[in-house]
Amino acid sequence: MKRIGISIFLLAAMQSCVVVKEYEKVNINDPDMNLAAHKCERFETNFQVYREGASGANGGKTGGGCGCN
Amino acid sequence: MKKILLIILSLSIFGAYAQDNTNTSTYKKRVLENAEIDFVSSYYEQDGNNASVTGGIGTEKLTDVTPTITVTMPLSADEILTIDAGISAYTSASSSNLDPFDSSGASGGGEYEDDDDFSGSSNGNAAGTVTGSPWVASSGESYMDVWGNATVSYSKYSDDRNRIWSVNGGISSEYDYFSIGFGGGYTQLFNQKNTELGIKAQVFLDNWSPRYPTELDSYVDAGGDLNNGFFQGIDILNAQGQIIDKNGTDLWGPVEGFSLIQDKARNSYSVSLSFSQILSKNAQISLFVDIVQQQGWLANPMQRVYFGDRPNYFVGNASSIPNYTTQSNTDVFQLADDIERLPDTRLKTPIGARFNYYINENLSVRTYYRYYFDDWGMNSHTASIELPIKLGDKFTLYPNYRYYTQTAIDYFAPFEQNLSTQQFYTSDFDLSSFNANQYGIGIRYTDIFTKLKVFKFGLKSIDLRFAQYERSNGLNASIISGGFKFIFD
Q1: Is the pTM of this model over 0.90?
Q2: Contact A53 B409 (CB under 8 A)
């Protein structure tokens, strides 16, 4: 937990020294660079929520809305 | 945790205002130019030998087909409305064994198709003809079912596109479950849109329409009288295969104090925090923390539990009792001691991170990691990697791999290894200790000019994905999914 906290702290601090301008975001704006699961992945995430005890922190279900874990 | 979140919030706000005074764009681009429609469907199948409905042994065969449609439309230059609807039609050998006593045709098609119908009349079966097995799918009530879902979401962007508000609401329903969900979120972009902070809250107000294992439901319905209800005219065998005297003292019955569930609510409240940061022209990262509190009936009333410290009783063929836990048993079924019992609260905390790196115009790396813990004693790690490979202008290949591992919850024990003296117990192998490997491949066709038209919709992309999932306790699954995205011209 401590390590995670430190990592988050460092990453948050990095924003003050890294600025990528809009016109420099060609690569970042590539659809495959999107920081989210693909739409088609929703089904994989869904069955994993049923078949595994852990869920959440991935944009998918966290346990409500179904009789899943 | 609270401190970490405060640090993130403080630094982000400070950092953003310290250097971001450049939101000078006067041109206001629409957030979404045209309406989009996504048709996405999947076919899933699994098999394993640890069905929870039959107490941790038995077939887990299941197939599921899920078609969905998502319509995303601009309401104005700043607003987007999304409507998502889908159904999931499944056949499940496991859940059909809620009522396993028809594999011989004994009760198939009879009144016990309805697990709640124990009206005290004869079950219509001659003594000794009723059999069942955890290894054979019955044709019971829940053999085929449909889960339906509809969600509506609304998002509004500020003029400078640095603030986004969203709300959503939806319902889902299946034969033993109904859910209403709603939520809202706020996202703030800073630092010339290099940094993003988001908070989201979600509530699910769910309700069971509980279905119970046939023998337990019947026992309660008949007031414990084994000469009435489902058991009327049916022989019950002890562990030696001898028919018991239903008027004697050596009797099957559920665990002392057995009761059906009283609180049918199952509510979930979650808060999700997200932070993303562009690290360079080619790299970006995001972090997610969810805090999920669940309350109510968190166990599944369909799932049987067998205790190691209570005598065993069966219905069916006495000669198959010695082979009960093997797949060669096709005609004897052990009567349950209880249903799964779990605490009525659960606090879940998943912490996730994504890191994507653009290597060159043909190759990127997408990675994901999640650490999860809850107050039922489970810890879990998830890691995945995907390598999008562009094959020319139109095609992208997506080889991917996912590793998952979890510890068991404190209340898990396999078949016949829980004790009746425990307060909570389950034999659901989804909550056991295991690890899993998932191998997948996907391909996407993209036509940015949407040349192919269907009425006034242009085809933007086609996706196809396949994944094979292998769990260390023997459950295997495969899923194939595909989608078409259309843009309204």
Answers
A1: no
A2: yes
